[in-house]
């Protein structure tokens, strides 16, 4: 029973952090832009981030590509790990990966 409470607490904490992050971004975007500007700007948060000049990062695209690559790699690793686990559960000797 204690384990279930810990899992529930961790899930609630993760959802709370995500909700706080989205609310914070919404407040920042609403504060910086009017309604007509929000209708014309498709990605307001990227528009705000482009205003900042970071001497280390030359292009904001590099940061987004790094984040995307790490998430994609972790997802592929998880799928392959699950595929390996399922092959052990069902005692299948050779597993095939279907790529679209």
Beta-strand content: under 5%
Secondary-structure-derived class: mainly alpha
Give the N-to-C terminal Cα separation. 42 Å
Biggest beta sheet summary: none
What pattern of helices and strands is seen along the backbone?
A: HHHH
**Gross geometry:** extended
Cα-atom Rg, whole angstroms? 21 Å
Number of strands: 0
Specify the helix fraction band.
over 70%
Q: Provide the residue-averaged pLDDT.
A: 83
Low-confidence stretches: none
Query: Please, how many helices?
Result: 4
Q: Assembly state here?
A: single chain
Account of the protein in words:
With 100 residues, the chain is mostly helical. It has helices spanning 2-32, 35-40, 44-49, 60-89. The longest helix is centred in the N-terminal third of the chain and has 31 residues, at 2-32. The two termini are 42 Å apart.
Provide tags for this entry.
100 residues, mainly alpha, 4 helices
Question: What's the structural blueprint in terms of helices and strands?
Answer:
Blueprint: H1 2-32, H2 35-40, H3 44-49, H4 60-89
Compose a concise summary of this entry.
With 100 residues, the protein is mainly alpha-helical. It has helices spanning 2-32, 35-40, 44-49, 60-89. The model has no long low-confidence stretch (mean pLDDT 83).
